[in-house]
Specification:
Layout (H helix, E strand, L loop, with lengths): L3 E4 L2 E6 L2 E6 L1 E5 L2 E6 L7 E4 L4 E4 L1 E3 L17 H13 L3 H21 L2 E7 L1 H5 L5 E8 L6 H4 L3 H9 L5 E7 L5 H13 L4 E6 L3 H11 L3 H7 L7 E5 L5 H10 L2 E4 L1 H6 L7 H7 L2 E4 L4 H4 L4 H12 L4 H6 L3 H6 L17 E4 L2 H4 L6 H7 L5 E6 L2 E5 L12 H10 L5
Parallel strand pairs: 1-6, 2-7, 8-9, 9-10, 10-11, 11-12, 12-13, 13-14, 14-15
Antiparallel strand pairs: 1-4, 2-3, 4-5, 7-16, 16-17, 17-18
Helix pairs in contact: 2-18
Bound molecules: zinc ion (ZN).
Length: 416
């Protein structure tokens, strides 16, 4: 891959956990940041970013790509949300459901990239990610439901080859303990033994009703269910985590299992998110995900960092930014400097319009970016390659998605 230098940008660098802006050039080689400072190499390819703020791109470790038809759904509880989406799916043939899913995935990915997202972890992420240059961990969705019936009924051998063909960026999405069977837990366990690099993700503690349903089905909590099947560990991303006992949280910390918090989605479904202070006390690894647009509203990690701050009681913008950049990058295995602008980090960068800071009264750039309103994104680089850019920065432009959005709106008749 070519060497290149980014010029005329202001870089958001991190020192001792605090972000600050520096005016410097950025050298990139083989998709990795090779130097921060005055540009020196001559003859390398140069990208002029025209005064943009260069910040670490975002990593979204929990996203659903198929929820765009439910962007207008106002379900008061998780159960109501699931029931309504099930009714929607039962009215469509498998072929129609797949067409709707593809439209939804293309639109959702567009939104995620437009927001500056370099990595997504999502059920069937590879299908959408093949459209654009993005990092994607793709999970096989497992849930006894209308929409996922075909996957749920897959033969063990087909599941094994689905996962194996996507490693090290593949795995299983066990929707939640109350919606999966013993067969799937055993299969997941066998596959994890066979492929330790396999990812596992799933919802745990998404509200009291879900905690009760898990207890009723398995006689214990979801963390214990997964633990019994040897499914905890650093390549396991559990989502939500409300209502878990201290014992369960300790088990997550001891096994370095990652908890992806989605407090915006929780609030929309009247679910109590876990307290960040309690998670910190126990030492659980956490980051913030967006969930899908049906419950999260947007798939913009920065939006979610801002709103999560309110739900999690976290005011410090430096901490909130880390929860969508360096923390998830570390969980994805991007190394000690991953998710920051520093030598050795993957060159995953989001470009913000110059007015994101210079036209704000905030003295702290992290404060301006997180709390000062949604900054306009003008480009995204993933692994040293432009995924998209808006003139005057050169790079591929994002396609118009109004036709896609029109098709998705047309599905909505208000009766689901
Ligand atoms: Zn979810």
């Amino acid at each position: 891959m070519e060497r290149l230098t980014l010029r005329n940008g202001r870089l958001l660098v991190r020192r001792d956990g605090r972000y600050k802006l520096v005016e410097a050039s950025l050298d990139i080689a083989q998709g990795v940041i090779a130097g921060v400072g005055p540009a020196h190499a001559s003859g390398v390819h140069t990208v002029d970013v025209h005064g943009a703020l260069v910040v670490p791109a975002f990593h979204n470790l929990h996203l659903h790509l198929g929820e765009a038809p439910f962007a207008g759904l106002r379900a008061p509880t998780l159960q109501e949300y699931i029931d309504q989406t099930e009714r929607f799916h039962s009215r469509h043939s498998p072929t129609e459901r797949e067409r709707v899913w593809q439209d939804s995935a293309a639109w959702t990915l567009h939104e995620a990239l437009r927001a500056g997202t370099a990595s997504i972890v999502a059920p069937r992420a590879d299908s959408a990610a093949s459209l654009r240059h993005v990092r994607a961990v793709s999970l096989l969705p497992v849930m006894s439901s209308q929409k996922l019936r075909d996957f749920f009924e897959m033969a063990d051998e087909d599941v094994r080859s689905w996962v194996a063909s996507r490693l090290p960026l593949g795995g299983l999405f066990l929707h939640s303990a109350e919606y999966v069977s013993e067969r799937w837990l055993k299969l997941a366990s066998r596959l994890r033994t066979l492929h330790p690099a396999m990812w596992v993700s799933g919802h745990v503690g998404e509200g009291e009703a879900s905690v009760r349903a898990c207890e009723a089905k398995w006689g214990t909590d979801a963390v214990e269910v997964l633990s019994r099947h040897s499914l905890l560990g650093p390549r396991t991303l559990l989502v939500h985590g409300g209502g878990l006992s201290t014992r369960a949280l300790r088990r997550l910390a001891d096994t370095r299992t990652v908890l992806v918090l989605c407090p915006v989605s929780n609030a929309r479904l009247d679910v109590e998110p876990p307290r960040l202070s309690a998670l910190r006390e126990v030492g659980v690894d956490v980051c913030i995900g967006t969930d899908g647009v049906g419950t999260g509203g947007t798939v913009d990690p920065l939006d979610h960092a801002r709103m999560s701050g309110l739900f999690l009681g976290e005011r410090d913008p430096h901490v909130l930014l880390a929860l969508i950049t360096s923390s998830p990058a570390r969980f994805l295995g991007h190394g000690a400097t991953g998710g920051t602008i520093a030598v050795g980090a993957p060159a995953d960068l989001c470009f913000l319009a110059p007015d994101a800071v210079v036209e704000k009264p905030h003295t702290d750039p992290a404060e301006a970016i997180v709390w000062g309103g949604s900054p306009r994104r003008v480009g995204l680089m993933v692994a040293g390659k432009m995924t998209w850019a808006q003139p005057p920065i050169s790079g591929p432009q994002l396609p118009d998605v109004s036709e896609l959005a029109h098709r998705l709106r047309a599905l909505w008749d208000g009766s689901v």
